[in-house]
C-alpha cells in the first residue's frame, strides 16, 4: 500500500508551510523532487532549501527529471498525455525506492487542491491512498502583499486562467477576476478602460515584484517587467487580480 501526501508549500518560502505540512514531510518515507531543466533550476533549489530547513528526520529524498509537455494544438490531449508520463515516472520511483510500500510525499506549489494537477496525476496510481495538506495559495499571497480584499462588498470573484481569458474575454458573472497560469499577459487582450489590476510575481520570495493601478496605465509596464524577470531568472510564477472600477452608492 502506497500513501501519497501532496503537501502545499506556498510560493516556496519555508515560512509558508503549516505545522501539518512540516509534520507530513518528516513522517514521509520518500520525498520526490522534480527537476525541470537548467532554466528552472531555482525551482528545485527552493524545494531543496525547504527540505534542508524543515526536515528533522532522516527522510530519503530522490530527484527525477520531469518530462516536457507535448507542444500540440490539442491542449487538453497534450496535458493528459503529459500527466500520464509524470504518473509513470512516479510509479517507477515508488517501485524502485518503496518496493514494500510506504508514504510518498510531494511538495506542491500553493495549495494542491486549487490549481495544481498533482491530485489528478496521483489519481492515476492504482490503489494509492491520497492525502492533501493545504498550503498558502498565490491568491492569498497576492491579496496580502497588496493589502486588499479579494472581492468588492457583496460581489463574487471568478478564478480563471490566462488561456480562458484570452479565448473568451471578460465573463459576465463577476466584476473581479483572479487570473493565474497566464504565460502571455492575457490582460492585454481586454479593453483596459475602467479596469484596475493588482499583479505580483515570486510572491513571498526575496525577488518578489508587485505592481498595481489602472490597467490602461500599468498593463504595458507589467508585461515588460514580466518578460525581463522571466529572462533574468529562467522562470516566473505570477498572478493578478482584475477588477471593474465602480462607484459605490450607499442606499
UniProtKB/TrEMBL annotation:
Task: Give the pathway annotation.
Answer: Cofactor biosynthesis; adenosylcobalamin biosynthesis
Q: What is its EC number?
A: 2.1.1.152
User: Which reaction does this chain catalyze?
Assistant: precorrin-5 + S-adenosyl-L-methionine + H2O = precorrin-6A + acetate + S-adenosyl-L-homocysteine + 2 H(+)
Q: Which UniProt keywords apply?
A: Cobalamin biosynthesis, Methyltransferase, S-adenosyl-L-methionine, Transferase
Classify the source by domain of life. Answer: Bacteria
* Name this polypeptide is given: Precorrin-6A synthase [deacetylating]
**InterPro entries, per the entry:** 4pyrrol_Mease, 4pyrrol_Methylase_sf, 4pyrrole_Mease_sub1, 4pyrrole_Mease_sub2, CobF
Keyword NAD appears in the UniProt entry = no
Annotated ranges, domain Tetrapyrrole methylase = 6-216
Amino acid at each position: 500500500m502506497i500513501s501519497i501526501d501532496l503537501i502545499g508549500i506556498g510560493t516556496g518560502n519555508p515560512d509558508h508551510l503549516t505545522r501539518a505540512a512540516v509534520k507530513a514531510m518528516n513522517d514521509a518515507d520518500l520525498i520526490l523532487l522534480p527537476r525541470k531543466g537548467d532554466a528552472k533550476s531555482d525551482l528545485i533549489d527552493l524545494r531543496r532549501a525547504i527540505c534542508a530547513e524543515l526536515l528533522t528526520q532522516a527522510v530519503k529524498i530522490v530527484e527525477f527529471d520531469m518530462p516536457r509537455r507535448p507542444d500540440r494544438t490539442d491542449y487538453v490531449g497534450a496535458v493528459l498525455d503529459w500527466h500520464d508520463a509524470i504518473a509513470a515516472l512516479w510509479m517507477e520511483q515508488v517501485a524502485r525506492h518503496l518496493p514494500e510500500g510506504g508514504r510518498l510525499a510531494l511538495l506542491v506549489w500553493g495549495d494542491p487542491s486549487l490549481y495544481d494537477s498533482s491530485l489528478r496525476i496521483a489519481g492515476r496510481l492504482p490503489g494509492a491512498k491520497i492525502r492533501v495538506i493545504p498550503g498558502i495559495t498565490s491568491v492569498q499571497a497576492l491579496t496580502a502583499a497588496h493589502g486588499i480584499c479579494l472581492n468588492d462588498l457583496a460581489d463574487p470573484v471568478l478564478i480563471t486562467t490566462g488561456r480562458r481569458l484570452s479565448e473568451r474575454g471578460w465573463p459576465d458573472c463577476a466584476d473581479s477576476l483572479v487570473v493565474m497560469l497566464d504565460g502571455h499577459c492575457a490582460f492585454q487582450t481586454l479593453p483596459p478602460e475602467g479596469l484596475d489590476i493588482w499583479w505580483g510575481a515570486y510572491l513571498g520570495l526575496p525577488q518578489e515584484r508587485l505592481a498595481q493601478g489602472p490597467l490602461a496605465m500599468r498593463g504595458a509596464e507589467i508585461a515588460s517587467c514580466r518578460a525581463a524577470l522571466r529572462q533574468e531568472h529562467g522562470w516566473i510564477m505570477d498572478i493578478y487580480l482584475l477588477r471593474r472600477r465602480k462607484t459605490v452608492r450607499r442606499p
